[in-house]
Amino acid sequence: MNNIDHKISQINEIKQLDETVINKIAAGEVVERPASAVKELIENSIDAGSTDILIEVADGGKTLIRVTDDGHGMSEIDLPMALRRHATSKLKNNNLLDINSFGFRGEALPSLGAVGRLRIVSHKEGHGAYEIAVNGGDCSSTKPAARVPGTTIELRDLFYATPARLKFLRSNKSELKAITDAVKGLSISTPSVGFTLIDKIAEKSRILLQVRKESDDSIKAKKNRLERVLGKEFSKNAISIDVTRDDINLTGYVCLPTYARASNAMQYFYVNSRQVRDKQLIGALRAAYSDFMPRDRFPAAAIYINCKSEFVDVNVHPGKAEVRFRDSQSVRSLIITGIKKLIAIEGQRSSSTLSTAALGIMRNGTLDITRTVEEKFDNNLQNRNYNVVNRSPYKNIEPAFKETWKPSARDLGTENQPSKFKEEFQNFPLGAPLAQFNENYIISQNNDGIVIIDQHAAHERLVYEKLKKQIKDNKIEVQVLLVPEILEFSESEILILLEYKDKLSDYGLKINQFGINSIAVQEIPAILNFQNIGKLISDILDELADLENSESLEKEIDAVLSRIACHGSIRSGRRLKIEEMNSLLREMENTPNSGQCNHGRPTHVSLKLNDLERLFGRK
Ligand SMILES: Nc1ncnc2c1ncn2[C@@H]1O[C@H](COP(=O)(O)OP(=O)(O)OP(=O)(O)O)[C@@H](O)[C@H]1O
Ligand SMILES: [Mg+2]
Prior knowledge:
This protein has four domains: 19-211, Histidine kinase-like ATPase, C-terminal domain (Heat Shock Protein 90); 219-346, Ribosomal Protein S5, domain 2, CATH 3.30.230; 352-458 and 573-615, MutL, C-terminal domain, dimerisation subdomain (formyl-coa transferase, domain 3, 2-Layer Sandwich), CATH 3.30.1540.20; 478-526 and 528-567, Ribosomal Protein S8, Chain: A, domain 1, CATH 3.30.1370.100. It contains 21 helices and 23 strands.
């Protein structure tokens, strides 16, 4: 880059920029990459009332983007106007607070025409078909053309007129992915429109996405569209939400916490049908799940916010991907409380994917008995010091006859007990306990089949919810230690602990400084009843250090509580009596959010009798 000449504005007179330069500057903001051009063109087609939209691209949209629609089209007079900057048919009474269309700025088409070769063919009912072209800002005159009513807009050689921009484009593959994401996003907002996305490779075509139009844009239609676009697993694990407060309506589908994702790519937000990527909304969704999901996992969701157009300013960013709410706090709290409540109700469910996946594994024959025999044989050979190459992929599996693999069903007390519970509790959602397996999994039977419960995960959630309730009701029960536990920490750790001393005491954990490098723990939450206080405090320290930049007190509380709960829970490896199992299951049924532990892992999975029978070829 040339150095900036600080005197330039003194030397030159002030001149109006010409139209082509203005359009190129605007294009820099509106058209970032091929996907943004695709988005602008599709939005124009939807605004024109189209019911079917075909999108064809080549080379990741770099050499060709063509959008064909069956909307109301443009007349011969409209065509040159559409290419003029700040010319639009969409803004009513010049009122930027009353926007009911995707477009309103009147700058997408002139911007595209400034940076690529644009050709529009359009037929407005009763006016015939015409075409117009613009290359790098130079506009042709209109001429008659042939096509049925609707519009085709073709953009070739994007950024050929702005080579600097061209250099910043990514590989064809990643540009194509961004285009596909843009089409998916738009298709989810308007299920009443059908979409087909085609990648043109030489003479061949590849359909990347095809969704038929639904009868309307209702929430049911949206669910069908979501299933088509995001897959069956999404819809199977989604819970529908519909809440309204202060004239703001929130509908959509949010997933069970156990259907957590590795990134936030499966989060779709729409404000009055417009897809937005808004930090505030993403943050609110995160906060809604903070109790159920570890910080490095993300919920999947499609959220539609509808409100009067004057409640929201969409004119914040040229790409219109951000919005500003008049009362952003109430939108945030609507999302957080709405979703939290919903998960509390549905929290008993855990992801359907898990049991399906488990069944899949069984079907794949992981329990191949012949292999296990082969493995034992290999082990025998190794024991005799023969030089054997271990061919088996199961070398980490402990031999089947080792102590820990013994099912502990035999240890369940008297013979009659399991059947006693069976009669009484088989109708309950989590059924009647039958056995404990590997000293962590409770196996129970309900009317549908069997349920396998992770006792540690389940108990962790129960303790956590109990603690939260006690704190909320200001009734935390504490246990005074007869002999205070003295623990050593570094000076900086002691400083952190003392900083949070009052808050920790609200949680029932009373500490005091004891010399320079130690603290004395005097009280602990009664619910804990655990041995290793030192480990708990150092875990809490980790949590607090992590939270140094934490946004809210609420999050700090939850993170620390979650740690306490984890320590106060039945560890895996503890054998439970059948009564203990039964009371754990019954308590789970009465505890909110008990489908997942505090880290979002499922607390239980169920295998339906039907599936088991299919597994054994009985059905
Ligand atoms: N596919 C189409 N069918 C019918 N009319 C169209 C189509 N595409 C564009 N137009 C007309 O051309 C005008 C200009 O389109 P352009 O995208 O530049 O601006 P806009 O949509 O009004 O606003 P924005 O810049 O915010 O998108 C539109 O207002 C509309 O009247
Ligand atoms: Mg537009």
